[in-house]
């Protein structure tokens, strides 16, 4: 008994070399920056950008010079509310499209011959090997007015007497870009989940009278929900805050909240407001996640 | 009319003939067992009955209807898989309700029928559990309840007890027999365990290399094996090769290799009296041999002498391995009836063995 605390201590000491580096990493590169951002979001902007000091001399006293004005602005001005809603909508559409596109593909890879699975997965992540900007510029060419796609679409529209449209610099282009960029983040967790399914469960379901459609909705899909949630989170969160894709493909018409936040830190030089917008965005993402979790629960209860 | 008819069914995988021209009939209400060594084609045959695999040639007919082209979900046949294949995301009740829901059973009927099925397998209090919260034996029973809840015409069971330990296995065997009698559903049971086959079945088909070697009641398969494979595979058996030297009215005389001369009766199934010069095999179960330190054979007995080579004490019985003076090695079994006495002989003891003329079963050729 007497040496147990010592043994416990030694065990804890022995764990330190393993757990300390990642803990330190998270504190330094996640917790500290987040706290800095929290502080920034309640400060005033500096005269030439950056931040004004948080402590100021006021009539001989040192006082905190902080404000909630940035948050007030972020949630009360309609332009930002509209942008939040639009970004939320783009992110939801992107997530749903990614799910719809990724599911059959992941299922096909998971059920393909073991020999080819690694190759197929490699093909999924192959685009990552070329530069992000190059891939987006490629889409600018594909969707551009001189490309066959836009010409074909506009010829078809003209044939039925409709005005020509611009594919590029439109919400459509932004969604295409967002789906394209985030698709692998849906495929990989879905594949990792589907690949582990026991095929005899499907045999059993079929044996007990389930047709292909029922086998999917009663067995495969509910069992894949953890993969769906993981993939949805990995697509939804970055898509919600995206700025590069709407910057390049969206034109003025289809900017997202991410563009505005970026602008606050760059052109507008209003860091506190940018920080406040970021935290509102984070709150939106969290609320969306809670809503999704609640919907998921309802779905499972309904399946009973 | 038989419930299930399998007519000249073959299944080939590449060059390998897994099921070779099998024909058999299973009657309604029967507990029918396919037994054979691993790889003999039992699962392949079962999967074709369930519809997961198609025969290359031949027909599978259920209640007079050829099942060709009928997918598994449309066959009135359910399977209990060796791994149980319970749906991990559903509770026990939901698992059992699954086939009822697939069959579009009215909602108000599902609850009582699930409860009844749970009652049948004595799991009434486990309905709200998930499969991972159950023991192996309990999962097994859920799989049975799920497969039986909408009373299929035929239940297929592929080595359902293979994953259980010996004690639980025996208990589940008794439960299976009872359950089958209660629900009256026809069972086709697959196992590689000959003891299980003998214990459970009304009839047994012994399979080897894709063919059926013998199809009979358990006592016939055990007592009157059709050939050397069946004799050897079902239970333990002494297989004594020999040549017929003379034939009489009711019996004949054999010269058994390494044993000596012995009288025997003709094969009880074929009843054909062998001719002198013919070779054949006398199969003799160890419990049919009398073994003693010294014995005077009765007039209707054959006998031989040897030395105890080794023995296996099994608790209820002891198996003695005896080297006969003429060279053969045989097995004899003695029940340990006398209390306190664990063995009758020591290694090296000279012993005599004797067996009735009609104790052996002669296999021609
Ligand atoms: N899908 C398949 N492809 C190739 N060979 C198979 C396939 N299924 C079974 N076999 C072969 O057929 C033989 C019989 O298999 P199986 O019916 O599973 O035997 P059992 O159930 O009696 O152990 C085995 O040698 C097995 O390797
Ligand atoms: Mg098998």
SSE map:
The complex is a heterodimer of chains A (304) and B (365).
Chain A: H1 4-41, E1 55-58, E2 61-64, H2 69-76, H3 78-111, H4 114-125, H5 132-143, H6 148-159, H7 171-194, H8 199-207, H9 212-240, H10 244-249, H11 257-265, H12 271-303
Antiparallel strand pairs in A: 1-2
Helix pairs in contact in A: 1-12, 2-12, 3-7, 3-9, 7-9, 8-9, 9-12, 11-12
Chain B: E1 4-13, E2 16-26, E3 31-35, H1 42-50, E4 57-62, E5 65-66, E6 77-80, H2 92-102, H3 107-120, H4 136-148, E7 154-158, H5 166-183, E8 186-191, H6 194-200, E9 203-208, E10 211-216, H7 218-223, H8 228-233, E11 238-247, E12 252-256, E13 260-264, E14 279-284, E15 290-292, E16 301-313, E17 317-324, E18 329-335, E19 350-356, E20 361-364
Parallel strand pairs in B: 3-8, 3-9, 6-7, 7-8
Antiparallel strand pairs in B: 1-2, 1-4, 4-5, 9-10, 11-12, 11-14, 12-13, 14-20, 15-19, 16-17, 16-19, 17-18
Bound molecules: adenosine-5'-diphosphate and magnesium ion (MG).
Outline of the structure:
The complex is a heterodimer of chains A (about 300) and B (about 375). With about 300 residues, chain A is mainly alpha-helical. Chain A has twelve helices and two strands; from the N terminus they run αββααααααααααα.
Tell me, what's the shape of chain A?
globular
Secondary structure: helix percent of chain B: 10-25%
Largest sheet of chain A: 2 strands, antiparallel
Low-confidence stretches of chain B: none
Mean pLDDT of chain A: 90
Number of strands of chain B: 20
Q: What's the number of structural domains of chain A?
A: 2
Assign a percent range to the helix content of chain A. over 70%
| Gyration radius over CA of chain A | 25 Å
CATH class of the largest domain in chain B: Alpha Beta
